Amino acid sequence: MKIRLMLMILLTVSSLFAQLDEREILFKRATRYRTQQQYEKAAETFSEILKIYPADEEVIEQFTMLLIQTKQTKRAEKLLTTHKKSISKVSYTNLQINIMLSKGQIKKAKNIAFEYLNGNIRINDYQKLFSTFEFFKESGIAVQIIDKVRIIANDHFLFAREKARIQKSLNNLELAIIEYLKVAENKWQYANFALSRLRSILLENVDLIEVVEEYSRQTDNQKIHEIYAQCLGDLGFYEKAILEYNNLPIADLKRFAARQYSIENLVYAKKAYTQYIEKIGDQVEIANAKIIIAKIEMRQNNFIVAKRILTEIENNATIKNKKFRYKTRANSKCRELLAEIEQITGGAKYIQYLQDAKNFSFNDNDKKKLDLKIVYHQLLNENYEQATYQLASVLDGESENSEIYKASIYNSYLMAVFQNNPDADSLLTEFILNSANDERTNDLLYLSTFLENFQDEENRQIFLKAYRKKLLFQDEEALDILQQLYENLKNEELLILAGDWAFESKDYELAKKMFDAEFLDVVLQNYAKLKLAEFDKNICKIFLEKNQDSVFLPNFRKLLEEK
């Protein structure tokens, strides 16, 4: 008896699953036809399903919407009337509204919607109906429904994201801003979403920042204050932004400072980091922030100020203590930067600072990287014997796959070039293969190309002397040598390069003189005209400030490729 009962249950369940599988297959088929715009086939399939499952609410809804989509409103009305009792009241009302709106009966659709909503307090029903009105571009009615449900639910944050979207579509930008701020205030997880939408609005109308400010003043919500500060920064109101960040957690101020530094807004990065330092007591954090301020001063050619800041870090007994020295690279970094200042200003303590920096390195690799800088300095000063000895010491025990070996190839190539060693070509190839993304790759490629201009070793060495002077920041001497070489050879590419170097060293008068010359080569003449035009637009100045380490400029590289 038990076995027979179990078999009957099993057969019943199997039959039920078979029916469900059949329904699912047919529904997916109808949906696929609709997606492929084979509307008649989709309608036939939906009809087939309803013959088997006449009370399937999902099928009734989808079939009705298909008929509305294909402008078969009478057929849709008939279908809806036939199956009225098989679907929920809200679905029936919503489909009614869809039919009316498709026929342009807007007032009637609105009346039916509000008649239904007046006797209903289910929030999801409100969402279903306002979404329908929004779909049919009746955004004003959609907003009215949202406002109504907010009153009923006593929640002015309800559907803020949807209302913001609708208000933006209506070009009610002030109201859209308020709703996006509500989104962030109510759910911090959506703060970045809200901020991105606010940025797009504010970039079109900067004056609307006042709406954000007013909202911020009326709430204690920290996320809103942060968004206001971020918007101020994005719009270029940096002074106001810093004032706002002053009232926010220190981490927010630090992020703002880092952001300004990353986009090379150096003036306000320095102000923000200075304010950050005033608010903290952690000596490690102070040292790290001062390192960045010193870098900014160096970018602005304020080497005396930068050196003073770096010397303060160098003499900071706290961070030199064993307890802290491995928590920050500021000890080593400040000495590296002091060495760089020595090189730029012609000081004599470059190597001394780097040797001292090695005492604060975290590991042997860091020490060897500093040694490679010393090798580079020796090369530029033509101390080839010392450079060769030190480079060999650095590479002792290093495999060809090691980071240090790959980093050393640059110095090896320069040494070969400066000494006219035939290994230079193979070293250049090795450097490119190992350092394709290195910003120096193009400089080396075009150094190699440029050297082909010289038929005799004497002029080649004169040019390399100018090149070394340029890398040592001895710009005036480098330009004197380059101009004299041009006078001797009358090679117009030398004149172009002299103009670029003069501009890079901010000797704008000399640069203009170089580019004003009469060039026989048409390509070079056009390049010179381009550079003169850039004087007026200040394009070159902006680029050079961002790429102060490059000897050959991208435009010049492109020019050489064309030639």
Task: Explain what the structure shows.
The protein has 563 residues and is an all-alpha fold. It has a domain at 457-562. The chain has 33 helices and no strands. The chain has helices spanning 2-35, 39-52, 57-69, 73-82, 89-102, 106-118, 123-135, 139-153, 160-169, 173-186, 191-204, 209-217, 222-234, 238-245, 250-262, 266-279, 283-299, 303-314, 317-320, 330-345, 350-358, 364-380, 384-395, 403-418, 424-434, 441-451, 457-471, 475-489, 492-504, 508-515, 522-537, 539-546, 554-562. α18 packs antiparallel against α20 and α22 runs parallel beside α24. Residues 10-18, 543-554 and 556-561 have low confidence and may be disordered.
How many strands? Answer: 0
How far apart the termini lie comes to 97 Å
Q: Strand count, sense and closure of the main sheet?
A: none
In helices, the fraction of residues equals: over 70%
Low-confidence stretches: 10-18, 543-554, 556-561
Shape, principal axes of CA atoms: elongated
Mean pLDDT comes to: 88
Strand content: under 5%
What radius of gyration results from the CA coordinates?
A: 36 Å
Given helix and strand content, the structural type is: mainly alpha
Tally of individual helices: 33
